Amino acid sequence: MAVLLGKDTRVLVQGMTGRAGTFYTDLAMRYGSTYVAGVRPGKAGTTHLDLPVFDGVREAAEATGANASLVLVPPHKAAAAMIEAIEAGIGLVVCVTERVPVHDMLRVRAALNGSETQLVGPNSQGVLAPGLCKIGVMSTADAQPGRVGIVSRSASLTSEIVAQTTAAKLGQSTTIGVGGDPIHGIGFRRCLELFKDDPATEGVILIGEIGGSEEEAAADYLASVDYGKPVVALVVGRHAPAQRRMGHAGTLAVLGGGTADAKLRRLQEAGAVIARNADEVAGLMRKALGPA
Questions:
Q1: Which domain holds residue 83?
Q2: Least CB-packed of 12, 15, 223, 258 within 10 Å?
Q3: Averaged in consecutive runs of 10 residues, what is the pLDDT profile of the chain (292 residues)?
């Protein structure tokens, strides 16, 4: 099993005919994921990568049975694309677009209220269930099916930890990149809930960053339940200067809040195993899980 997606996931791509859409759709299909349609206004009735192209998401979903969407459109159009997918009743929407305006994301957040859609992103690497399905731009080079769920705000560190867990013969059940923007879809807490209920996930690796409150929300959740599975947490940015933005829009520590040490302290108090450096993560998870 996996969380969010699986063998029954049928993906449509909003923006499939563009350069990025073409490249990543082709990669995902070569990996074995089931992609069924593209959406590009004005190109209905054509085909691209041997898939039908539709003017709208609802039309595409009704014709193909798509239940997931990958949003690969420019930042100024990304919110409208996400809202269209939400209003069409798509169960999973993954947006990898960077630099979506914050005000636009407030409209997306409002559209999510009361819907059954789970949004991953924006500014996300996507979601990968090794051997089953890939939605997004995440590398599959080192991914292997396995026992560990990974949820991350950092794209580069995701690739590193996937490679580590594969080398340690742990593998991954599902890897989720929640994105680095301050306003986004599902976060650490929701991913921890999903992994808790997934029998294929025996342990969880959480990769955080300075800024925002994702890690604190995860700590509050872990402290409130008997999680029953080991959680290894890595939060990077311990040496970053305060009050200075470091890459991601959400990566900003102000007036002592959102620092790496504060986040790690909260997570440790909630029962997580703390990795001080990236190269410790897989070893700590293997030790926490015990013999296979």
A1: 11-120
A2: 223
A3: 93 97 98 98 96 98 98 97 98 96 96 97 97 97 97 93 97 96 94 98 95 92 98 84 54 58 94 95 96 72
Alpha-helical segments (H) within the chain: 19-31, 57-64, 75-87, 102-112, 155-167, 188-196, 214-224, 260-269, 281-289
Question: Which residues are catalytically annotated?
Answer: 248
Is 5 inside a domain boundary?
no
Q: Number of C-alpha atoms within 13 angstroms, CB side, residue 136?
A: 29
CATH number at residue 19: 3.40.50.720
pLDDT of residue 35: 98
Other C-beta atoms closer than 10 Å to the C-beta of 129 total 25
- Specify the pLDDT at position 180: 84
Instruction: Round to whole Å and give the CA distance between 79 and 165.
Output: 34
- For 106, the 3-state DSSP assignment is helix
pLDDT at 254: 45
Dihedral sign, CA of 17, 19, 23, 28? negative
- Position of tokens 């102000």? 254
Q: Please report, as a single letter, which amino acid is at residue 115.
A: S
